[in-house]
UniProtKB/TrEMBL annotation:
PANTHER family the UniProt entry points to: K(+)-INSENSITIVE PYROPHOSPHATE-ENERGIZED PROTON PUMP (PTHR31998)
Designated name of the protein: H(+)-exporting diphosphatase
Pfam families assigned to the protein according to its UniProt record, in alphabetical order: H_PPase
EC number(s) stated in the UniProt entry for this protein: 7.1.3.1
Annotated localization: Endomembrane system
Domain of life of the source: Eukaryota
GO cellular component, one term: endomembrane system
Keywords from the named record: Ion transport, Magnesium, Membrane, Translocase, Transmembrane, Transmembrane helix, Transport
Keyword Translocase carried by entry: yes
Species in which this protein is naturally found: Sesamum indicum (Oriental sesame)
A GO MF label: diphosphate hydrolysis-driven proton transmembrane transporter activity
Membrane topology, record value: Multi-pass membrane protein
Ranges annotated as spanning the membrane: 36-56, 62-80, 116-133, 153-177, 197-221, 241-259, 343-363, 383-403, 415-436, 474-492, 504-526, 571-589, 610-633, 681-699, 711-730
Length: 797
C-alpha cells in the first residue's frame, strides 16, 4: 500500500501546484504600453530617441556616446532574454511549480513596491517643503536658480531615481522567475547548459540594471544642461550641475533599502521556517514538496536575492557616479580647467565601457558537451572565474583608454596616467575582495571545512566557530580598503593638478577614480550574483518535481557555487560602499561649506557633542541590525507555527495522502515582511534628520552655528566604519554557515540526516538573517545615510 501511495498517489497529487493569484501581474506602465497600437508605439519610440539624442548632442558628444552604448546594451539584453526564453521548460510538473513561484513573487512585488511608492511620494513632499524654505548657496544666487526651481528639480530627481530603482528590481525578479525552470530542465541534459542559461539570465538583468543607472543619470544631466542653459552668461556653471543630481541617488537608495529589508525578511523567514520544521523536526530533505513553506522559500529567493539585489546594485552605481561627478566638477573648478566636462562625465564613460566588457565576459561562457556527471564536468566556479578574469583584463585596457580620452589636460599632461593607476588600484581591490570572500565562504577552502568539522561536536561549537570565522573575516578586507584609499589618494595628489595657491587638489578625485575602477566590472559581478538565486530555485524545482538524483546533484553543485558568488558580490558591494561613502562624505562637507559661507573641512571629535554624534552613528548600525534580525525571527516564528499546525492537522502530508497549503505560508510571510520592514527603514531615514536638527537648535542657543552639521558628519563617519565591519561579519559568517551545511550534504562527515548535518542546519538557520537581511541592508544603509545627509544639509544649519 505504501509503495502504491508513493508511486501512484504522490505522482497524481503532489505535482499540482495552485496559483497564488487568479491572473498574472504586469506593472501598470507595461500594461499601458501593451494597449498602444504597435505602429504608434514605434513612432513614439523613434520620436523619444530623436529627442534624447538631440538633447544629448546639444550637451556633449560624450553624452551621445553614452546613450549609444546603453541602447546597444539594451539590445544585447533583449537578445539574451530571447535566447533564455527559447529554452524548454521541461515536463508539466516543473512548469506548474515554476508558475506557483512566479505568481507568488509577482504578487509580493506588487504589494511591496506599492507600499514603497507611497512612502517615496510622502518623502518627496517633505523634501519639497524643506527646499522651498531653505537658504540658497552663492552659486545658486549667481546663476539665478531660485528656491522653487531647485526644490522641484531635487524632488523630480528623487522620484525618478526611486522609479528607476524599482524598475531595476522588477527586471531582476522578472528574469529569475522565468529562467529557474529552464535551468532545471537543462540540468536533465547537461550541467554546462544549465550553467550557461543561469549566467545569461543573470546577464540580462545585470545589463539592464547598469544601463538604466547610467542612462538615467545621463538623461538628467543633459536635460538640466539644456533647460538651465548651463555655462551661458549669468547661468549655472557646468561644474555645479552634478549637485542637482543628488536627489536621484537618494531616491535609488530609499527604494533599495526597503526592497532589501522587505525581500530579505521574506526570503529568510520562509527559509528558516521551512528548515527548522522540515529538516530538523521532520527529517525531510530541503525543498521537499511535503513542506508547506517550500513555495514561500522559493518565492523568497526571487524577491530577496534578485529584485532586492538589482535595486541594490543600481543604487551603488548611481551613488558612485554622482559623487564622482561632484568631486570631478569641484576639482576642475579649483584647478581652473577650461573644459571640465571630461572630469565630470568620466564616470558615465567608465560604466559605458563596463557594459561592453561585461557583455564579452558573459558571452565567453559557452556551452560545451559534457556528460552531466559531476566528476566529469568542469568546476562551475572556475568557469565563472574565467569569465571574470576576461572582464578584468578588458577593464584594465578600457579604463586606461578612458582616462587618456577624458582626463588629459595641458595643465598636467601626465595626470591621466596617475588616474589610470588609481583605476587599476580599484580594479585590483575588487579582484582581491572577490578572492578573500571566496576563501572564507567556499567549502573548497579551509575555513568552511573547519566550520563543518566543528559541527561534529554539536550545535554550540558550530555557532562559536561560525561567529569567530565571521569576526576574523573583517581583517583582510579592511586592510585592502585602507591600502586602496591611501594609494589612490596619494596618486591623485601627485598627479600635478594644483589650485590657485599651488596646493595639490587631485587626492579626493583619485579616490573617486579608484571607486570607479572597483565598479568597472559591476555588470559581470551582478551577473554572478543573479546566478545564485536562479540556481537555488532550479534545485528546488528539481527536488519538488522528483527528478532523478543525478539531476539534483548537478543543481546542488550549481547552488553551492551560487552561494559563493552571492557572498563575493556582497563583499564587493561592501567595498564599493566604503569608497562611495567616503566620497559622499567629502561632498557633504563641501555642501555645508557652500550653505554656511565658511570653510568646513574637518570634524573635531574631541568636542563632546560631536563625539556623541559618532556614538549615535555606531549605535544606529547595531540597532538597525538587531531590528532586521528580530524581524526575521518574528516572521519565522509565524511560519514555524503554521507549518507545525499543518503537519499536526494534516497527518497525511508525510505519507503523500494530503497536499500542504502552500498559499497560506506565502500569505503569512508576505504580510509579515511588509509589516516588519517599516521600523528599521524608518529608523535609518529619521535618525540623521532628527539628530542634525536637535543639535542645530542646541548650537543656536550655545553660539555654535555649525554644531548640527558637525554632529551629523561624525554620525555619518562612525556609522560608515561600524557598518562596514558589521556587514562584513554578517555576510561572511552567514555564507560560511550555509556552505558548511552544503559541504556536509555532499557526503562529508556523515552526510545528510547525521547529527553533524543537524548542527550545520542550525548554524545555517542562524546565518540566514545575517547574510540575506541585515548584512545586505547595511551597505545600502551606509550609502543612504550619506545621500540623505547631502540632500538634507540645509536643515542642519
Amino acid at each position: 500500500m505504501d509503495d502504491d501511495m508513493e508511486g501512484g498517489l504522490y505522482q497524481e497529487r503532489t505535482r499540482t501546484f495552485p496559483n497564488m493569484r487568479s491572473k498574472p501581474y504586469s506593472p501598470l506602465i507595461f500594461r499601458l504600453l501593451m494597449r498602444i497600437n504597435s505602429r504608434v508605439l514605434v513612432v513614439l519610440l523613434l520620436f523619444g530617441l530623436g529627442a534624447l539624442f538631440y538633447i544629448g548632442a546639444s550637451t556633449s558628444p560624450i553624452i551621445v556616446f553614452v546613450y549609444s552604448v546603453c541602447i546597444i546594451s539594451f539590445l544585447v539584453s533583449i537578445y539574451l532574454t530571447k535566447w533564455v526564453l527559447s529554452k524548454d521548460e521541461g515536463p508539466p510538473e516543473m512548469v506548474q511549480i515554476s508558475e506557483a513561484i512566479r505568481d507568488g513573487a509577482e504578487g509580493f512585488f506588487r504589494t511591496q513596491y506599492g507600499t514603497i511608492s507611497k512612502m517615496a511620494i510622502l518623502l518627496g513632499l517633505v523634501i519639497l517643503s524643506i527646499y522651498l524654505f531653505r537658504s540658497t548657496t552663492p552659486q545658486q544666487e549667481s546663476s539665478g536658480l531660485g528656491r522653487s526651481t531647485s526644490a522641484y528639480i531635487t524632488v523630480a530627481a528623487f522620484l525618478l531615481g526611486a522609479l528607476c530603482s524599482g524598475i531595476a528590481g522588477y527586471v531582476g525578479m522578472w528574469v529569475s522567475v522565468r529562467a529557474n525552470v529552464r535551468v532545471s530542465s537543462a540540468a536533465r541534459r547537461s550541467a554546462r547548459e544549465a550553467l550557461q542559461i543561469a549566467v545569461r539570465a543573470g546577464g540580462f538583468s545585470a545589463l539592464v540594471v547598469v544601463g538604466m543607472a547610467v542612462i538615467g543619470i545621463a538623461v538628467l544631466y543633459a536635460t538640466f544642461y539644456v533647460w538651465l542653459e548651463v555655462d551661458s552668461p549669468g547661468a549655472m556653471k557646468v561644474s555645479d550641475l552634478p549637485l542637482l543630481l543628488v536627489g536621484y541617488g537618494f531616491g535609488a537608495s530609499f527604494v533599495a533599502l526597503f526592497a532589501q529589508l522587505g525581500g530579505g525578511i521574506y526570503t529568510k523567514a520562509a527559509d528558516v521556517g521551512a528548515d527548522l520544521v522540515g529538516k530538523v523536526e521532520q527529517g525531510i530533505p530541503e525543498d521537499d514538496p511535503r513542506n508547506p513553506a517550500v513555495i514561500a522559500d522559493l518565492v523568497g529567493d526571487n524577491v530577496g536575492d534578485c529584485a532586492a539585489r538589482g535595486a541594490d546594485l543600481f543604487e551603488s552605481i548611481a551613488a558612485e557616479i554622482i559623487s564622482a561627478m561632484i568631486l570631478g566638477g569641484t576639482m576642475a573648478q579649483r584647478c581652473k580647467i577650461e573644459d571640465p566636462s571630461g572630469f565630470i562625465l568620466f564616470p558615465l564613460v567608465v560604466h559605458s565601457f563596463d557594459l561592453v566588457i561585461s557583455s564579452v565576459g558573459i558571452f565567453s561562457i559557452r556551452n560545451t558537451r559534457d556528460s552531466g556527471i559531476i566528476g566529469a564536468m568542469e568546476d562551475p566556479m572556475k568557469i565563472l572565474q574565467k569569465g571574470y578574469s576576461v572582464t578584468v583584463v578588458l577593464a584594465v585596457l578600457t579604463f586606461g583608454l578612458s582616462t587618456r580620452w577624458m582626463l588629459y589636460t595641458e595643465q598636467a599632461p601626465s595626470a591621466w596616467l596617475n588616474f589610470a593607476l588609481c583605476g587599476l588600484v580599484g580594479i585590483m581591490t575588487a579582484y582581491i575582495f572577490v578572492y578573500i570572500t571566496k576563501y572564507y565562504t567556499d567549502y573548497k577552502h579551509e575555513p568552511v571545512r573547519t566550520l563543518a568539522l566543528s559541527s561534529s561536536t554539536g550545535h554550540g561549537t558550530n555557532i562559536i566557530a561560525g561567529v569567530s570565522l565571521g569576526l576574523e573575516s573583517t581583517a583582510l578586507p579592511v586592510l585592502v580598503i585602507s591600502i586602496s584609499i591611501i594609494s589612490a589618494f596619494w596618486l591623485g595628489q601627485t598627479s600635478g593638478l594644483v589650485d590657485e595657491s599651488g596646493s595639490p587638489t587631485g587626492g579626493l578625485f583619485g579616490t573617486a577614480v579608484a571607486t570607479m575602477g572597483m565598479l568597472s566590472t559591476a555588470a559581470y559581478v551582478l551577473t554572478m550574483d543573479m546566478f545564485g538565486p536562479i540556481a537555488d530555485n532550479a534545485g528546488g524545482i528539481v527536488e519538488m518535481s522528483q527528478q532523478p538524483e543525478s539531476v539534483r546533484e548537478i543543481t546542488d553543485v550549481l547552488d553551492a557555487v551560487g552561494n559563493t558568488t552571492k557572498a563575493t558580490t556582497k563583499g564587493f558591494a561592501i567595498g564599493s560602499a566604503a569608497l562611495a561613502s567616503f566620497l559622499l562624505f567629502s561632498a557633504y562637507m563641501d555642501e555645508v561649506a557652500s550653505f554656511a559661507h565658511v570653510a568646513f573641512n574637518q570634524v573635531d571629535i574631541a568636542i563632546p557633542e560631536v563625539f556623541i554624534g559618532g556614538l549615535l552613528g555606531s549605535m544606529l548600525i547595531y540597532l538597525f541590525s538587531a531590528w532586521a534580525c528580530a524581524a526575521v525571527g518574528r516572521s519565522a516564528q509565524e511560519v514555524v507555527n503554521e507549518v507545525r499546525r499543518q503537519f499536526i492537522e494534516r497527518p497525511g502530508i508525510m505519507d503523500y495522502k494530503e497536499k500542504p497549503d502552500y498559499g497560506r505560508c506565502v500569505s503569512i510571510v508576505a504580510s509579515a515582511s511588509l509589516r516588519e520592514m517599516i521600523k528599521p527603514g524608518a529608523l535609518a531615514i529619521i535618525s540623521p534628520i532628527v539628530v542634525g536638527f536637535l543639535f542645530r537648535v542646541l548650537g543656536y542657543y550655545t553660539g555654535h552655528p555649525l554644531l548640527g552639521a558637525k554632529v551629523v558628519a561624525a554620525m555619518l563617519m562612525f556609522a560608515t566604519v561600524s557598518g562596514i565591519l558589521m556587514a562584513l561579519f554578517l555576510n561572511t559568517a552567514g555564507g560560511a554557515w550555509d556552505n558548511a551545511k552544503k559541504y556536509i550534504e555532499t557526503g562529508a562527515l556523515g552526510g545528510k540526516g547525521s547529527d553533524c548535518h543537524k548542527a550545520a542546519v542550525t548554524g545555517d538557520t542562524v546565518g540566514d538573517p545575517f547574510k540575506d537581511t541585515a548584512g545586505p541592508s547595511l551597505h545600502v544603509l551606509i550609502k543612504m545615510l550619506a545621500t540623505i545627509t547631502l540632500v538634507m544639509a540645509p536643515i542642519f544649519l
